[in-house]
Specification:
- The protein has 2 helices and 13 strands.
- This is DUF1851 domain-containing protein.
């Protein structure tokens, strides 16, 4: 399912700052709520059939969206999971020269997008496993 990313704002009709109830109303699919870490302030929702995780801040508002197949995260027409990690990083770096490349991914604070690619060190031509779209301040 194609998911159009709007940097610093959200994905498709999902806008940062929405409540969990608003997110769930927009995504008519089964979900599982869980804590990503034991000390997480608020549970996240996993919409497995959509390849989407909705991540909420301590007030219960949407602050990040993680996308994995079958989701197709698109930024300016580019499927970030449909190209190799190196190619996706090159594209994101053209939009944000300050992009930080890591062993298992890359983070663009300016775009509000990070890629998770645990295989990047061994085979950077493989696509990333997921893309995280996040609100300003998410990594603060």
């Amino acid at each position: 399912m194609e998911r159009v990313i709007t940097s610093q704002k959200g994905v498709g009709r999902l806008v940062f700052g929405m409540s969990a109830a608003q997110v769930r109303a927009l995504l008519p699919a089964r979900f599982n709520s869980f804590k990503r870490t034991p000390d997480a302030a608020c549970p996240s929702d996993h919409f497995a059939d959509l390849g989407l995780f909705a991540i909420y801040d301590k007030a219960g508002h949407l602050e990040a969206i993680e996308l994995a197949p079958p989701a197709v995260p698109q930024l300016c027409g580019i499927n970030l999971l449909g190209v190799g990690f190196d190619e996706a990083v090159k594209y994101l770096k053209s939009k944000d020269p300050q992009l930080e490349r890591e062993v298992d991914g890359a983070i663009s604070l300016a775009l509000g997008i990070s890629l998770y690619a645990p295989h990047a060190a061994k085979d950077p031509k493989l696509p990333s496993e997921s893309a995280l779209v996040f609100a300003p301040g998410y990594y603060d």
